[in-house]
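User: For a reading group we're discussing how well predicted structures match intuition. Take 2-keto-4-pentenoate hydratase. Before you show the prediction, I'll give you the sequence so everyone sees exactly what went in.
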Amino acid sequence: MTTVDIEAANRELAVARQDEKPCPPLRGRLLPEGDIEAAYQVQQVYARQRLGKGHRRVGAKIGLTSRAVQESFGVFQPDFGVLFDDMAVGDGVEVPMGRLLQPRVEAEIAFVLGADLPDERVTTVDLIRAVDHVLPAIEIVDSRIAGWDISIVDTVADNASAGLFVLGTAPRRLADVDLRLCGMVLERAGEPVSVGAGAACLGNPLHALEWLAGTMARAGDPLRAGDVVLSGALGPMVPVTPGAAYEARISGLGSVRTCFSSSEGCREREE
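Assistant: Thanks. Here is the predicted 3D structure of 2-keto-4-pentenoate hydratase, as structure tokens, for the group to look at:
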């Protein structure tokens, strides 16, 4: 039987970030298989450490919003991680490969809140009132677990495999977009590499936001006005090719672009 070691799991992930070398899976060694609660405890330690170093929480990301992906993990709910201020990258700005270990990209819809969501039970009306605007987004996910050999426990402990994120620059009102039906194409150097639609995200990205709002309220850390919420992938994630440019186009929302340096160069270590 695996003994829970929250501090050791957090240290391994911290060393992976610092030494630029992914670590073995945590499950079955430092965290029991399927112990999602323990995994979130590891994530919380990491978040407190980052806040203690002066970083700001700017929102949250939702993962595992595809039913097929949930089934592959043997779970029936999404997961979430924390977004910090230094994870944001400008639209079209080059990302140094040295900032990342095993990056992949996925296209998403981002919600920007204009009001708090403090209640554990939220309605669609509550969500619509709270959302200030929506944007197309590219999430650059990155695992500190070697070879992306992850279970639900590994990814939750690793802050839901959060890396960086890029937001579009043309806000849209929620009332002007049908999030369920909007189509997505993610291109690399002009060639499609991932396609999908809003319905791939729990049937509607608003469902993902509803889940997150209730989950965080129950945890005593509710979503606040100004928070950015990455609602989950609209299509398959794609491994990053050094030197390549990626553009996501989402119908009704416009486009967002990111590109990567052609080599690792000097790594920028996370503080």
